[in-house]
Every structure is written in structure tokens, then in C-alpha cells.
Write a structure and sequence with these properties.
about 70% helix, 9 helices
Length: about 130
């Protein structure tokens, strides 16, 4: 997959210009993967638009295709970037999904994530 194709897929996942459902987005990813199987690196790059936009079902689908999840702290911090109170409940569900994968430095990771959430004024996430 070219860089531009990957970027387009990330935008498709994150923006949903045509109000696609999670199921439609997952079907689209499956179709692309069936035509040209995504590499592990490409699957990892699909995590970002899923986590920051609070798309927990898409995130679970993407994670199911990843053999080894690294940089969990980076993904968790990315989840709380920016202010968008409309999707905080979904972002909290995304964080719960990532917490399942935390093994080392769990407290440090959670602290940094909550500091970032507080910085953006996302008090509902910090309360979680």
C-alpha cells in the first residue's frame, strides 16, 4: 500500500465524510486487506484515527490483526489529544481497551495520559 493510500484510509476511518457506520468502515478495511494484505506496520498506523476519534469497535477490529502491540502509552496519550467533549465517552472506552494491553509501567502510563487529558481540559476522561 502506498503512503497516500494509507493516509486516505486513515482519513476514511477518522473523518467518515459520508457518515459511515463502524460496520461499513470495517467492511471497507476488510475489502482493502483482501485485495492487498496490510502489513503489521500499516495495521499499527490504523490505530491512531481509531483511538483519537473514539471508534472502539474499529479499534478492536484493528487490534485483532496486530501480532504484538507496542507503544501503548503513545496510543493512550493520542486518544486524549484535543478537545472534543462529544466523544469523551467513546474515548474512555478506547482507553479501557488499551488498558487491557498494559503490562509494564502501568501507573506511569496512566499518569501521563491523565496529565495530557487534563491539559486539554478533558475532565470527564481524568475522572475516569
Amino acid at each position: 500500500m502506498s503512503e497516500q493510500e494509507l493516509k486516505n484510509l486513515q482519513i476514511y476511518i477518522g473523518k467518515r465524510n459520508q457518515s459511515q457506520t463502524d460496520e461499513q468502515v470495517i467492511d471497507h478495511i476488510k475489502k482493502i486487506n483482501d485485495e492487498t494484505p496490510l502489513t503489521q506496520e500499516e495495521w499499527h498506523k490504523l490505530i491512531f484515527p481509531s483511538c483519537n476519534n473514539g471508534h472502539v469497535e474499529i479499534l478492536k477490529f484493528v487490534l485483532s490483526h496486530i501480532q504484538s502491540l507496542n507503544n501503548i502509552k503513545e496510543y493512550m496519550i493520542h486518544t486524549v489529544y484535543g478537545r472534543n467533549e462529544n466523544i469523551n465517552e467513546n474515548r474512555i472506552e478506547v482507553l479501557k481497551e488499551f488498558i487491557k494491553y498494559l503490562t509494564d509501567n502501568k501507573e506511569e502510563c496512566l499518569n501521563e495520559t491523565m496529565i495530557n487529558a487534563g491539559w486539554f481540559g478533558e475532565t470527564e476522561i481524568v475522572k475516569f
